[in-house]
Amino acid sequence: MRFRVVGVLCCLTVVWLVGCAQGEQSKPSAAEAFNEMWNHLDQIKVPVDHVLILEQFMADYPDTEQAENALGDVIYYRTEKMDDLPGAIAVTRRTLDQTLDPGLRFKIGLRLHKLKHKAGEPTDLGVVADELASHRELGFLDHLDVVEMSEETGQWDIMLEHATAMVAFANSTSFRAAYPDDDFSDERVEFSVNRRMAWVLAYRGGALVNLGRLEQAEEVFREAADIPAITDFVGIPVTPLDVFRGQAAMLLNRPDEAAEYFAVDALMGWRSDAKRGLEDAYVALNGGMDGYDEYCQALREQIARPLAAVTLINYEGLPVDLSSRAGTVMVISFWNPG
Amino acid sequence: MELPRLQKIWERNRDQGFEVIAIESSRETAKAKKFIDGAGLEFTCLENGEGDDEVVDRVFRLQGYPTSYVVDRRGRVMFHHWGWEDGDEKKIEAEVVSLL
Questions:
Q1: What is the DSSP secondary structure assignment for residue A168, as one 8-state letter?
Q2: Looking at residue A45, what is its pLDDT?
Q3: Is A296 an interface residue toward B (CB < 8 Å)?
Q4: Does B80 contact A337 at a Cβ distance shorter than 8 Å?
Q5: ipTM of predicted assembly, 2 dp
Q6: Quick check: B32 contacting A, CB < 8 Å?
Q7: CB proximity A211 to B under 8 Å
Q8: Chain A within 8 Å of B35 (Cβ-Cβ)?
Q9: Whole-angstrom distance between the N-terminal and C-terminal Cα of chain A?
């Protein structure tokens, strides 16, 4: 294993030295070097070795999109695999200091904010957003980044401010302007605008719920009811709207309604707040957790959807109809080779 | 990577009417075949269609990768997984066994 790590480090160093000897023209681009590194990382299983290679790459290619991507992995390994939150904060802070590009500083600033919040250090998400705003106007996705981070770190005033700012982008003119090279159909634009508005209303409502402004939140949720539900195939909403509605219903002492809102996210999705919400609603309705598993099973029977009848081709060129497999239990796994 | 772990689950439960179907979404045929061969995957591997036959975005509207559905004998999607963490294979196998 160590041979591989040393090999990669040597490889990066040799590439760098050759580049220096032959002039900057010969140095591989950050994208090329990143792809090369990634192919080697696939073979390495020890977290600390991953981190060594990634941090060397970041030192060799500072102030690049690829360095910011590598930072994401360093943070993952240091926090999730190495139990080293202080190390993750130190690397992120150092990377921020070495970065000049405003867009990259914004992304790194968001990462640092999350880590500092996790460590219980004082941090202000507004400062991160304001720094980018001093260079350029924030777009829809910038606001969405701030809003999602504010949800993770419980900064509801900032969530409300940026969700409200997103309204200006939830229209067809703004959407088309954001993608000037694409010739989207009217149908596609309408879908995307609806999705943007769903995000706006979900987060505005969610911020209001968490700020205790329930009447205003309910107004926002009523407005959201006019937008077609946007879900994936199994019915999981693409926005946290239903989770926030459920939280509001709980605060208004309507646990039966709350359970309906939480159900799909809790049983099919990945949101831990939805799972907690469904449990809380169940306890409020039943006085305890007895029978909860049976309740979930019954709910699951209600929300389960039949698999789509689609036909795809296997690698021998033969068609396979997914719906023809009735009678077997299946795992359908969607993947890509990366 | 989830597919080699699904291979193990398939090997342990295939005799009881259990199948795994992997759908490669991005139609990177050469890379996919290389991975499938390298990992020794023996279950059904399919490729997403293109144009009107494209299904991953148009029909399933996935929110991320990897995504897995656990489907019961009546053809209903009973469990859904997004992402993959250490230990998920135990969770998925328990769900599969509960439906067999």
A1: G
A2: 78
A3: no
A4: no
A5: 0.96
A6: yes
A7: no
A8: yes
A9: 23
Q: What is the structure's pLDDT at A2? A: 40
Contact list in A for residue B100 (CB cut-off 8 A) is 329
CB contact under 8 A, B23 and A312: yes
CA B40, A309, B75, A291 torsion: positive or negative? positive
Query: What is the rounded distance in angstroms from the CA atom of residue B20 to the CA atom of residue A217?
Result: 44
B60 inside 8 A of chain A by CB = yes
CA distance A328 to chain B (A): 5
**Residue ranges of the domains in chain A?**
1-123, 137-230, 231-308
Say how many residues make up chain B: 100
Tokens 């009217």 locate to A186
**Among candidates B79, B91, B93, B46, which has minimal Cα distance to A235?**
B79
> Residue A337 above 90 pLDDT?
no
pLDDT, tens digit, 9 for 90 and up, residues B24-76:
998 888 888 888 888 899 999 999 988 888 888 888 888 888 899 999 999 99
- As a CATH number, domain B2-99 is 3.40.30.10
| Domain extents in chain B | 2-99
Task: Output DSSP code: residue B83.
Answer: S
Tell me: pLDDT of A299 over 60: yes
Tell me the per-residue pLDDT of A120-131, one tens digit each, with 9 for 90 and over. Answer: 998 899 999 999
The topology (CATH level 3) of A1-123 is 1.25.40
* Cα–Cα distance, A116 to A83 (Å, whole number): 15
